[in-house]
Every structure is written in C-alpha cells, then in structure tokens.
C-alpha cells in the first residue's frame, strides 16, 4: 500500500519539485498551500506523513505542528525551514516535529529523511509485545503505546525524536552506543557530521528527565565511546 504524504508548502515551484520526486519514489503525495487548509485536510483524511514548511500564510508551521501533536493519534512530521538559526530548529523540534530540513536542501536528502522516518514507524510497529509494555525505571515511567513519559508521576513532554531516543536507551539498559550507532537506530540514517545532533538531543533529554542534568542518573556518558542507559540509577552517578 502506498504511503500518503501531505506537503504543506506555499512556494508552488518548490512544492511541485518535492511532489515530483516523492512520487518518483513510490509515494502518494498531495499538497496544501496554507496551515488552516492543511489542518482541515488532516482532520478529514488519513495521511502517513506531513512535510511541513515553517513559514506559512495564516497559521504557521509551528502552530499547525502544535495542533497535530495535541491529537491522540501519532503522525510523523518533517519540518522545512528557510531559517538557519538553531533557535528556529529547536522550536520546531520542541513542538513535536520528528525531523527538520533547512532550505535550501537537496532533494536526495529530503527523500532520505522521508524514508528514514518511515523505517522508524515500521520498526516501532514490529516491536514484540513485551517491548510495548510500560517501562518503570527508578521513578521514570515510559509508555511506548501512548508515547508518554512520567517522572515521579509528573508527565514529561518530549519531542518525537527525544521519545524514540529515550525508549531505545531504556529498552537496552547497560548497552553502550556510539553517536553513529544512535544515528542509525534512532534517526534511521548515518552521516558524518550529524553526530552533534545526537549530542543536542541527549542534552535536551537530560534537561527534561534528570533531576540534576550535570549528574545524570539515567543516560550516562561513556567517555571516548558514547552513551548508555543505566541498569540502575545510583544517586551519585556522574556524566556529562
């Protein structure tokens, strides 16, 4: 069955280019030129992925992303932005985008990111039953089915990528992963120069789930190698 993708982009030339290449790769692709129309379309029709421009007339990409993430169903979101500052990219991730591509981008990279997102969706669907059970680790509760996280009973709001990263770590306690390995298994692609993406996500994740991010109890640094999830969360575990 073809994957359905909705491209929300007000630049018609760019939208047509994206549609053409995604269709060439076997996807069923449609387009909306503004956020309000896209929201109405997504509420009435099923799609498997949204490619969402940050700058849109009327309702912008951030607001549309927030509204989509407020729905009970999970829909992967790949955000496009013409802005290059880290703040804009982080805002997109914080409101729930799964990944982003900064304009100008190569069509090959965009298609690769789309395929990587679908590989993640497929991998999650193929998890064994026990992997979808709620995980409890020293006050941290991770619910894969609902994609919810609670710390000492309080809900912690994570982006899609942060959740996937935490779930992968918690499902393999004690196992050490390099940044490149995490790119492969969580992001779905490996690429030299993207290791900083792993670092920034781990830093934001620690800021949300660790009582003292500079002294993490859950996600520990293994110097010279990468990171691991603690099998236990000792009070004095140190990391960076």
Search tags:
single chain, 240 residues, alpha/beta, Rossmann fold, Arc Repressor Mutant, subunit A, five-stranded parallel beta sheet, four-stranded antiparallel beta sheet, 8 helices, 12 strands, 40% helix, globular, disordered C terminus
Shape: globular
Number of strands: 12
What CATH architecture label of the largest domain applies?
3-Layer(aba) Sandwich
Order of helices and strands: EHEHEHEHEHEEEEHEHHEE
Gyration radius, in Å: 18 Å
Strand content: 15-25%
Q: Say which CATH homologous superfamily of the largest domain is assigned.
A: Response regulator
What would you say this structure looks like, in words?
It is a single chain. By secondary structure, the protein is α/β, with parallel strands linked by helices. It has two domains: 4-125, Rossmann fold (3-Layer(aba) Sandwich); 129-229, Winged helix-like DNA-binding domain superfamily/Winged helix DNA-binding domain (Arc Repressor Mutant, subunit A, Orthogonal Bundle), CATH 1.10.10.10. The chain has eight helices and twelve strands. It has helices spanning 12-24, 35-44, 61-69, 86-94, 107-125, 160-171, 179-187, 195-209, and strands at 4-8, 28-32, 49-53, 77-81, 99-102, 135-137, 140-143, 148-151, 154-156, 176-177, 219-222, 226-229. The strands form three sheets. A five-stranded parallel β-sheet has the order 2-1-3-4-5, with helices on both faces. The protein has a four-stranded antiparallel β-sheet with strand order 6-7-8-9, with helices on one face. A three-stranded antiparallel β-sheet has the order 10-12-11. α6 crosses α7, α6 packs across α8 and α7 packs across α8. The radius of gyration is 18 Å and the shape is globular. The relative contact order is 0.09. Mean pLDDT is 83; it is low at 233-240.
